[in-house]
Specification:
about 25% strand, eight-stranded mixed β-sheet, about 290 residues, 9 helices, alpha/beta, three-stranded parallel β-sheet
Protein backbone atom coordinates (compact mmCIF):
# COMPACT_ATOMS: atom_id res chain seq x y z
CA UNK A 1 0.00 0.00 0.00
CA UNK A 2 1.60 3.24 -1.12
CA UNK A 3 -0.69 5.54 0.84
CA UNK A 4 -3.96 7.43 1.05
CA UNK A 5 -5.19 10.65 -0.51
CA UNK A 6 -7.69 12.22 1.87
CA UNK A 7 -8.98 15.75 2.37
CA UNK A 8 -11.10 15.23 5.49
CA UNK A 9 -9.10 16.32 8.56
CA UNK A 10 -10.54 13.69 10.92
CA UNK A 11 -9.83 10.88 8.45
CA UNK A 12 -6.33 12.19 7.83
CA UNK A 13 -5.69 12.09 11.58
CA UNK A 14 -6.99 8.51 11.78
CA UNK A 15 -4.64 7.51 8.94
CA UNK A 16 -1.70 9.15 10.66
CA UNK A 17 -2.42 7.23 13.88
CA UNK A 18 -2.36 4.01 11.86
CA UNK A 19 0.94 4.95 10.26
CA UNK A 20 -0.58 5.18 6.79
CA UNK A 21 1.34 7.51 4.43
CA UNK A 22 -0.67 10.57 3.42
CA UNK A 23 -0.14 11.59 -0.20
CA UNK A 24 -1.83 13.95 -2.58
CA UNK A 25 -4.21 12.59 -5.19
CA UNK A 26 -1.72 12.79 -8.06
CA UNK A 27 0.91 10.88 -6.05
CA UNK A 28 -1.51 8.08 -5.20
CA UNK A 29 -2.52 7.63 -8.84
CA UNK A 30 1.05 7.86 -10.12
CA UNK A 31 2.48 5.35 -7.63
CA UNK A 32 -0.34 2.79 -7.63
CA UNK A 33 -1.24 -0.14 -9.86
CA UNK A 34 -4.64 -0.55 -8.23
CA UNK A 35 -6.80 2.25 -6.81
CA UNK A 36 -9.55 1.63 -4.26
CA UNK A 37 -12.11 4.44 -4.18
CA UNK A 38 -13.57 4.74 -0.67
CA UNK A 39 -14.53 8.41 -0.82
CA UNK A 40 -17.88 10.08 -0.14
CA UNK A 41 -20.65 8.69 -2.36
CA UNK A 42 -20.98 11.84 -4.53
CA UNK A 43 -17.25 11.51 -5.35
CA UNK A 44 -17.23 7.81 -6.28
CA UNK A 45 -17.66 8.23 -10.02
CA UNK A 46 -15.36 11.27 -10.27
CA UNK A 47 -12.52 9.54 -8.44
CA UNK A 48 -12.99 6.21 -10.23
CA UNK A 49 -12.97 7.96 -13.61
CA UNK A 50 -9.73 9.76 -12.71
CA UNK A 51 -8.06 6.45 -11.88
CA UNK A 52 -9.40 4.66 -14.95
CA UNK A 53 -8.33 7.50 -17.26
CA UNK A 54 -4.85 7.12 -15.77
CA UNK A 55 -4.88 3.44 -16.74
CA UNK A 56 -5.24 1.99 -13.25
CA UNK A 57 -7.21 -1.01 -12.05
CA UNK A 58 -10.10 0.21 -9.89
CA UNK A 59 -12.22 -0.97 -7.01
CA UNK A 60 -14.98 1.55 -6.29
CA UNK A 61 -17.32 1.34 -3.34
CA UNK A 62 -21.05 1.13 -3.94
CA UNK A 63 -23.00 2.81 -5.34
CA UNK A 64 -20.39 3.48 -8.03
CA UNK A 65 -22.27 6.32 -9.73
CA UNK A 66 -25.37 8.47 -9.57
CA UNK A 67 -26.12 8.07 -13.28
CA UNK A 68 -26.08 5.27 -15.82
CA UNK A 69 -23.96 7.40 -18.15
CA UNK A 70 -21.15 7.66 -15.59
CA UNK A 71 -21.25 3.93 -15.01
CA UNK A 72 -21.12 3.15 -18.71
CA UNK A 73 -18.16 5.51 -19.13
CA UNK A 74 -16.26 3.70 -16.38
CA UNK A 75 -16.99 0.37 -18.03
CA UNK A 76 -15.91 1.73 -21.43
CA UNK A 77 -12.60 2.98 -20.04
CA UNK A 78 -11.93 -0.31 -18.25
CA UNK A 79 -12.62 -2.31 -21.41
CA UNK A 80 -10.59 0.03 -23.59
CA UNK A 81 -7.52 -0.13 -21.33
CA UNK A 82 -8.08 -3.79 -20.38
CA UNK A 83 -8.19 -2.90 -16.72
CA UNK A 84 -10.03 -4.61 -13.87
CA UNK A 85 -13.06 -2.66 -12.65
CA UNK A 86 -14.78 -3.93 -9.50
CA UNK A 87 -17.71 -2.19 -7.76
CA UNK A 88 -17.79 -3.00 -4.06
CA UNK A 89 -21.02 -4.76 -3.17
CA UNK A 90 -20.11 -6.34 0.15
CA UNK A 91 -21.99 -9.67 -0.11
CA UNK A 92 -20.86 -10.93 -3.50
CA UNK A 93 -18.42 -13.27 -1.80
CA UNK A 94 -20.74 -14.14 1.07
CA UNK A 95 -20.86 -17.98 0.83
CA UNK A 96 -24.64 -18.09 1.38
CA UNK A 97 -25.26 -15.84 -1.63
CA UNK A 98 -22.77 -17.86 -3.66
CA UNK A 99 -24.64 -21.08 -2.81
CA UNK A 100 -27.91 -19.50 -3.94
CA UNK A 101 -26.38 -18.40 -7.25
CA UNK A 102 -24.97 -21.89 -7.76
CA UNK A 103 -28.38 -23.47 -7.11
CA UNK A 104 -30.18 -20.97 -9.35
CA UNK A 105 -27.78 -21.32 -12.26
CA UNK A 106 -27.78 -25.11 -12.03
CA UNK A 107 -31.57 -25.12 -12.17
CA UNK A 108 -31.94 -26.81 -8.76
CA UNK A 109 -34.48 -24.16 -7.63
CA UNK A 110 -36.47 -24.45 -10.86
CA UNK A 111 -37.87 -21.25 -12.35
CA UNK A 112 -37.51 -18.40 -9.86
CA UNK A 113 -40.80 -16.58 -9.48
CA UNK A 114 -40.29 -14.52 -6.32
CA UNK A 115 -37.55 -12.84 -4.30
CA UNK A 116 -38.18 -11.16 -0.96
CA UNK A 117 -35.48 -9.12 0.73
CA UNK A 118 -35.14 -6.94 3.82
CA UNK A 119 -32.32 -4.46 4.36
CA UNK A 120 -32.27 -2.03 7.27
CA UNK A 121 -30.14 -0.12 9.73
CA UNK A 122 -30.43 2.68 12.28
CA UNK A 123 -29.09 5.78 10.55
CA UNK A 124 -27.18 8.29 12.64
CA UNK A 125 -27.92 12.02 12.29
CA UNK A 126 -24.77 12.31 10.16
CA UNK A 127 -25.88 9.51 7.88
CA UNK A 128 -29.31 11.08 7.53
CA UNK A 129 -27.69 14.32 6.33
CA UNK A 130 -25.26 12.53 4.00
CA UNK A 131 -27.70 10.03 2.50
CA UNK A 132 -30.50 12.58 2.32
CA UNK A 133 -28.83 14.33 -0.60
CA UNK A 134 -29.89 11.44 -2.88
CA UNK A 135 -33.45 11.03 -4.09
CA UNK A 136 -33.26 7.33 -3.32
CA UNK A 137 -32.15 7.93 0.26
CA UNK A 138 -31.54 4.72 2.18
CA UNK A 139 -32.46 2.65 -0.86
CA UNK A 140 -29.54 4.19 -2.78
CA UNK A 141 -27.03 3.84 0.03
CA UNK A 142 -28.15 0.61 1.68
CA UNK A 143 -30.75 -1.16 -0.45
CA UNK A 144 -28.26 -1.53 -3.30
CA UNK A 145 -26.74 -4.55 -1.55
CA UNK A 146 -30.01 -6.42 -2.19
CA UNK A 147 -30.73 -4.93 -5.61
CA UNK A 148 -27.39 -6.32 -6.77
CA UNK A 149 -28.28 -10.03 -6.35
CA UNK A 150 -31.89 -9.44 -7.43
CA UNK A 151 -30.74 -7.98 -10.76
CA UNK A 152 -28.13 -10.68 -11.34
CA UNK A 153 -30.56 -13.49 -10.55
CA UNK A 154 -33.60 -12.22 -12.48
CA UNK A 155 -32.17 -9.89 -15.14
CA UNK A 156 -33.75 -6.66 -16.32
CA UNK A 157 -37.22 -5.95 -14.92
CA UNK A 158 -40.08 -4.92 -17.15
CA UNK A 159 -41.31 -2.50 -14.50
CA UNK A 160 -39.97 -1.07 -11.23
CA UNK A 161 -42.17 0.79 -8.75
CA UNK A 162 -40.37 2.54 -5.89
CA UNK A 163 -42.10 3.83 -2.77
CA UNK A 164 -39.73 6.32 -1.14
CA UNK A 165 -40.89 7.74 2.19
CA UNK A 166 -39.68 9.83 5.11
CA UNK A 167 -41.28 8.48 8.28
CA UNK A 168 -38.85 9.60 10.99
CA UNK A 169 -40.32 12.32 13.28
CA UNK A 170 -37.53 14.66 12.16
CA UNK A 171 -39.13 14.89 8.70
CA UNK A 172 -35.94 15.88 6.90
CA UNK A 173 -35.05 15.19 3.25
CA UNK A 174 -33.85 11.64 3.91
CA UNK A 175 -35.99 8.86 2.41
CA UNK A 176 -35.77 6.43 5.31
CA UNK A 177 -38.64 3.95 4.84
CA UNK A 178 -38.75 2.48 1.35
CA UNK A 179 -40.09 -0.36 -0.74
CA UNK A 180 -39.19 -1.35 -4.30
CA UNK A 181 -41.38 -3.71 -6.31
CA UNK A 182 -39.60 -5.15 -9.35
CA UNK A 183 -41.69 -6.97 -11.94
CA UNK A 184 -40.12 -9.40 -14.40
CA UNK A 185 -41.59 -11.39 -17.26
CA UNK A 186 -42.06 -14.43 -15.03
CA UNK A 187 -41.52 -13.22 -11.51
CA UNK A 188 -41.53 -10.45 -8.96
CA UNK A 189 -39.11 -9.17 -6.33
CA UNK A 190 -39.95 -7.04 -3.29
CA UNK A 191 -37.31 -5.19 -1.30
CA UNK A 192 -38.11 -3.56 2.04
CA UNK A 193 -35.51 -1.01 3.07
CA UNK A 194 -35.41 1.35 6.03
CA UNK A 195 -32.99 3.25 8.23
CA UNK A 196 -35.33 3.47 11.22
CA UNK A 197 -34.58 0.17 12.93
CA UNK A 198 -34.24 0.43 16.70
CA UNK A 199 -34.13 -3.29 17.54
CA UNK A 200 -32.37 -6.45 16.40
CA UNK A 201 -35.48 -7.65 14.58
CA UNK A 202 -36.32 -7.91 11.78
CA UNK A 203 -32.92 -9.11 10.63
CA UNK A 204 -31.51 -8.52 7.18
CA UNK A 205 -32.68 -11.39 5.00
CA UNK A 206 -32.88 -12.68 1.42
CA UNK A 207 -35.34 -15.29 0.20
CA UNK A 208 -35.62 -16.91 -3.23
CA UNK A 209 -38.68 -18.94 -4.26
CA UNK A 210 -38.65 -21.20 -7.30
CA UNK A 211 -40.80 -23.90 -8.83
CA UNK A 212 -38.26 -26.50 -7.71
CA UNK A 213 -37.57 -25.19 -4.22
CA UNK A 214 -36.59 -22.24 -2.08
CA UNK A 215 -33.51 -20.76 -0.42
CA UNK A 216 -33.36 -18.33 2.47
CA UNK A 217 -30.50 -16.42 4.13
CA UNK A 218 -31.43 -15.24 7.61
CA UNK A 219 -29.40 -13.62 9.04
CA UNK A 220 -26.96 -12.57 6.35
CA UNK A 221 -24.04 -12.06 8.77
CA UNK A 222 -22.93 -14.45 10.02
CA UNK A 223 -24.75 -16.20 7.19
CA UNK A 224 -27.32 -18.90 7.88
CA UNK A 225 -28.65 -20.60 4.74
CA UNK A 226 -31.70 -22.86 4.52
CA UNK A 227 -32.58 -24.70 1.30
CA UNK A 228 -35.79 -26.62 0.71
CA UNK A 229 -36.08 -28.64 -2.53
CA UNK A 230 -39.00 -30.55 -3.98
CA UNK A 231 -36.56 -33.18 -5.29
CA UNK A 232 -32.94 -33.97 -4.53
CA UNK A 233 -30.56 -31.99 -6.74
CA UNK A 234 -26.83 -31.35 -6.75
CA UNK A 235 -25.45 -31.80 -3.20
CA UNK A 236 -28.89 -31.33 -1.62
CA UNK A 237 -31.52 -33.83 -0.54
CA UNK A 238 -35.25 -33.29 -0.94
CA UNK A 239 -36.89 -31.26 1.82
CA UNK A 240 -35.62 -28.53 4.15
CA UNK A 241 -32.00 -28.50 5.26
CA UNK A 242 -29.40 -26.20 6.77
CA UNK A 243 -26.39 -25.71 4.51
CA UNK A 244 -22.89 -25.79 6.06
CA UNK A 245 -20.91 -22.69 5.13
CA UNK A 246 -17.21 -21.84 5.35
CA UNK A 247 -16.01 -19.08 7.65
CA UNK A 248 -16.57 -15.68 6.10
CA UNK A 249 -15.28 -12.17 6.79
CA UNK A 250 -16.79 -9.24 4.94
CA UNK A 251 -14.54 -7.49 2.34
CA UNK A 252 -11.56 -9.86 2.64
CA UNK A 253 -12.54 -12.19 -0.21
CA UNK A 254 -13.58 -9.23 -2.38
CA UNK A 255 -10.07 -7.81 -2.38
CA UNK A 256 -8.54 -11.28 -2.81
CA UNK A 257 -10.75 -11.72 -5.88
CA UNK A 258 -9.60 -8.32 -7.15
CA UNK A 259 -5.95 -9.32 -6.70
CA UNK A 260 -6.42 -12.57 -8.63
CA UNK A 261 -8.06 -10.68 -11.48
CA UNK A 262 -5.28 -8.07 -11.61
CA UNK A 263 -2.68 -10.88 -11.74
CA UNK A 264 -4.60 -12.49 -14.60
CA UNK A 265 -5.25 -15.67 -12.63
CA UNK A 266 -9.05 -15.57 -12.78
CA UNK A 267 -11.62 -13.03 -14.04
CA UNK A 268 -14.02 -11.35 -11.66
CA UNK A 269 -17.18 -13.28 -10.89
CA UNK A 270 -19.43 -10.46 -12.12
CA UNK A 271 -19.08 -9.30 -15.73
CA UNK A 272 -19.09 -5.67 -16.82
CA UNK A 273 -22.36 -6.29 -18.64
CA UNK A 274 -23.88 -7.40 -15.35
CA UNK A 275 -22.45 -4.32 -13.64
CA UNK A 276 -24.25 -2.09 -16.12
CA UNK A 277 -27.51 -3.97 -15.50
CA UNK A 278 -27.15 -3.69 -11.72
CA UNK A 279 -26.57 0.07 -11.98
CA UNK A 280 -29.63 0.48 -14.19
CA UNK A 281 -31.86 -1.48 -11.81
CA UNK A 282 -30.56 0.47 -8.80
CA UNK A 283 -31.43 3.80 -10.39
CA UNK A 284 -34.90 2.53 -11.32
CA UNK A 285 -35.57 1.30 -7.78
CA UNK A 286 -34.34 4.61 -6.33
CA UNK A 287 -36.45 6.82 -8.59
CA UNK A 288 -33.23 8.18 -10.06
CA UNK A 289 -33.42 6.81 -13.62
CA UNK A 290 -33.43 9.44 -16.36
Amino acid sequence: MVGVAEQDAATRMACEKLGVPLLNQAEVIERSEVITVESAVPDHARHALLALKAGRHVHVEKPPAETLEEMREMIRLAQQARRVFQPGYMWRNNPAFQKIFEAARAGWLGSIYSIRAHMSNAASPGQRREWGQFKGGSMFELGVHMLDPIARLLGKPVKVTPFLRTDHPVQDAFRDNNVAVLEFERGVAVLLNNSLQSSRLPVRSFEVLGTGGSASIRPIEPPVLEIDLAQAAGPYQAGPQSVPLPRYERYVDDLAELARAVRGERPLGVTLEEESLVQEVILMACGMAT
